[in-house]
Amino acid sequence: MKPFKPSIVAPLDSAFQPAVVFNRNYVEKAKASGRAVPLVLGLERENGLVSRYETVVLTEPDAETLRYVERIVKFLLWARGGWKLHFGGPKKIGEFIRKTYSARGSRKFDCEMMTRAYGENLEISFTSAARVPANKEMQVAAGGHLKGFRIGFDLGASDYKVSAVADGKAIFTEEMPWSPVTEANPDYHYHHLSAGLHRAAAHLRAWTPLAAVQPG
Questions:
Q1: Contact call for residues 82 and 75 (beta carbons, < 8 A)
Q2: pTM of the model
């Protein structure tokens, strides 16, 4: 695959290639070759919930195909989670994924993290694309209350705002000038914004319900 050259070159990494562009080019190349086959990935997690992802790949596991599939598997594990991967595609590619996402593979960290999160060893199960389990999702309401500590952060074109909220009460707010366009040094942005977050966190650490009571 011919490397895509974006119109705007990343100053910190001139070889940077956005994943979305690599993925799009790969799928187009696979379909145009006439040798594309379906690949369906089904991530199973707690209570039998399953999240499916469907695409196509070349039948032979060349370097681009392995990179494409491995990156998708990693993204799905962290975006959707799961302890069992139903791999519905070419077995040679599946074997590569099983070896990569193992206790001794290059993605050992990801494997161990999913095992810790779900209390089950990460498992790769080979099947056909047609037999990957159907989607089974469940909506769960999150939040709906104001209890606890929160930090709010808003980046603008000329300033940033940060606030600290404890049990629904704003105990710290700050608006600071910031120059994201004219400052090219990444250290400027890191230290500037990190300082704001740390100031908000410091107020939360020092806050107690009694501190909110004003003398009558």
A1: no
A2: 0.71
Give burial (CB, 10 Å; 0-12/13-18/19+) of 80: middle
- 175 three-state secondary structure: strand
d(CA 7, CA 26): 19
Among residues 73, 94, 82, 88, the alpha carbon closest in space to that of 50 is found at 82
Identity of the residue numbered 21? V
Q: Check: CB of residue 68 under 8 Å from CB of residue 74.
A: no
Is the four-CA dihedral 208, 209, 214, 216 of positive or negative sign?
negative
Integer Cα distance of 83 and 45 in angstroms? 6
Q: Are 52 and 41 in contact (CB under 8 A)?
A: yes
Q: Is 113 helix (H, G, I), strand (E, B) or coil?
A: helix
Q: Assess contact for 27 and 35: CB atoms under 8 A.
A: no
Closest CA to 166 of 205, 215, 195: 205
The residue to which tokens 């500037």 are assigned: 192
Residue 66 makes CB contacts below 8 A (sequence gap 6+) with 93, 96
Q: Which residue has the tokens 């705002």?
A: 161
For residue range 77-133, what is the model confidence (pLDDT) as tens digits?
999 999 999 999 999 999 999 999 999 999 999 999 999 999 999 999 999 999 999
Nearest 5°: the CA angle 181, 187, 190 is 85
Q: Please determine, for residue 63, whether its predicted confidence score (pLDDT) is greater than 70.
A: yes
Residue 20: partners with Cβ closer than 8 Å, 6 or more residues away: none
What residues are paired with 155 via a beta bridge? 160
